[in-house]
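Exam revision sheet. Question 4 asks you to relate a sequence to its structure. Input first:
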Amino acid sequence: MATLLKIDVSPRGASSYSRQLGLTFLEGWKAAHPGSSVVERDLAQSPLPFLDLPWIAGAFTPPDQHTPEFAAALKPSNEVIAEVQAADHILITTPMYNFQIPAVLKAWIDHLVRVGITVNYGANGPEGQLHGKKVTVIVASAGAYPAGDPGAAYDHLTPYLKHILGFVGLTDVTFLAAAGVAGVQYGKISEEDWKKPFTEQAAELAKA
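Answer key, structure tokens:
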């Protein structure tokens, strides 16, 4: 039985375009995987704590030497890692904030990246440990930053996510760039016309 891990980031609830497209993907994915299970983590409703000194100390201390404070600090990280390890497909829906990922998504990544668990260092350098999983990232952004366009340099979200997910072994990553939301906000295009091609893309990606 396949398992989808759905990570939602936007604080805008049902009005969020990234969440709306994520629901389209979810419906299609469930239809394509009968009997599948879905695990959902809403980072806007239940944000993870940022890393602190007990977390850092605990992460670099053998488990049998953990103090109660270390164990408590690492508990969210252990949960995040277990969810990713158990998933066959990971869906991340997120807005772009100031050309990067929101802070709550960065916190999730920081809990996921753990030396000795999700990444090891060998003779050839870092070796990610989370193999054999697909990742789909749906990004809603005010502007459009297509590859080859001078404006593409403003997009720091896509290359960062590709790099850090690949760092832990998640190399099969597909992005759906729902770009140009500003056109809707400024009345240059209707919401329906703007969203239609991205909804179709999300439905198609769910079949993969």
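Marking note for examiners. The two ends are 16 Å apart (CA to CA).
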